Amino acid sequence: MRRSFAGPLTGALALMAMAVAAPGAAGGTTTPDGVVIGGQPVEISQSPWVVALSSRDRFGGTRAGQFCGGVLVAPAKVLTAAHCVSSDVLGVPLGQVRDLAVIAGRGTLKGTGGQEVAVSGVQLNPAYDAKSNAGDFALLTLSSPLSAGHAIKAAGAGHTAYKAGTGAVVYGWGDTKGDGTYADELRAALVKVLPDSACERAYPGYNKATYRADTMLCAGDESGGHDACQGDSGGPLVADGRLIGLVSWGSGCGQAANPGVYARLSAAPETWVARN
Ligand code: ARG
């Protein structure tokens, strides 16, 4: 039931494409059944705040143990999705994972560039609700700091970047097709902030899949084809150079009727992220 996408990007998204310096993006087409979904490879040096969460013990060494994304928000602090450190994802309780680490500055998981830094502490958002995924934030403390210049600020509540229609970029090493094809290289896809009504319609509230506009943000592509997918969770959604969301959940990947749901950064614990 996958849909292919090869249409031209809109003007605003084409500009965003150039802003992420994606090879081939200026031409405005994507690989059919594209790649994140509907994205393209990007240089990690252009987005040094994107990090991979890794545990080789849990996920094997082929892709350096990558299982989620994260965002550097201070030299020794990485923001990720709370569900990424759940036993559902890890297969065992967090306390049993001895080699939880962050990989920074490495776009190609099989490569050796950048740094691997151990995670020395994990805080869950006290307001996180595992049932509904509301408030899907966790803060990781790194055992040694990374470059302060590589951290990104979040958009404060009320910032225009949260408005429907804003072009945004989502980054990750996750599934590129929705069939378990995981990326080795960091990819980015261009999406749009969608009105809350689009996700309220798609996820009207049976059990887990309830969209809550106070802690969640709706983003995607009205015609489908551009989205985050499995393995991208915890990674950043960026607009106007500011962090506005973390990949959280969705039904399928890249479907027009089922947009991506992100943890809304303005709902992250006050002291966790610098805002402007
Ligand atoms: N829960 C997924 C993860 O753990 C992210 C799913 C995002 N899905 C989407 N269609 N945007 O990686």
UniProtKB/TrEMBL annotation:
<keyword id="KW-1015">Disulfide bond</keyword>
<comment type="similarity">
    <text>Belongs to the peptidase S1 family.</text>
</comment>
<dbReference type="InterPro" id="IPR050430">
    <property type="entry name" value="Peptidase_S1"/>
</dbReference>
<dbReference type="InterPro" id="IPR001254">
    <property type="entry name" value="Trypsin_dom"/>
</dbReference>
<dbReference type="InterPro" id="IPR033116">
    <property type="entry name" value="TRYPSIN_SER"/>
</dbReference>
<dbReference type="InterPro" id="IPR001314">
    <property type="entry name" value="Peptidase_S1A"/>
</dbReference>
<feature type="domain" description="Peptidase S1">
    <location>
        <begin position="36"/>
        <end position="276"/>
    </location>
</feature>
<dbReference type="InterPro" id="IPR043504">
    <property type="entry name" value="Peptidase_S1_PA_chymotrypsin"/>
</dbReference>
<keyword id="KW-0720">Serine protease</keyword>
<keyword id="KW-0732">Signal</keyword>
<keyword id="KW-0378">Hydrolase</keyword>
<dbReference type="GO" id="GO:0006508">
    <property type="term" value="P:proteolysis"/>
</dbReference>
<dbReference type="GO" id="GO:0004252">
    <property type="term" value="F:serine-type endopeptidase activity"/>
</dbReference>
<keyword id="KW-0645">Protease</keyword>
<dbReference type="InterPro" id="IPR018114">
    <property type="entry name" value="TRYPSIN_HIS"/>
</dbReference>
<dbReference type="InterPro" id="IPR009003">
    <property type="entry name" value="Peptidase_S1_PA"/>
</dbReference>
<protein>
    <submittedName>
        <fullName>Serine protease</fullName>
    </submittedName>
</protein>
<dbReference type="Pfam" id="PF00089">
    <property type="entry name" value="Trypsin"/>
</dbReference>
<feature type="signal peptide">
    <location>
        <begin position="1"/>
        <end position="21"/>
    </location>
</feature>
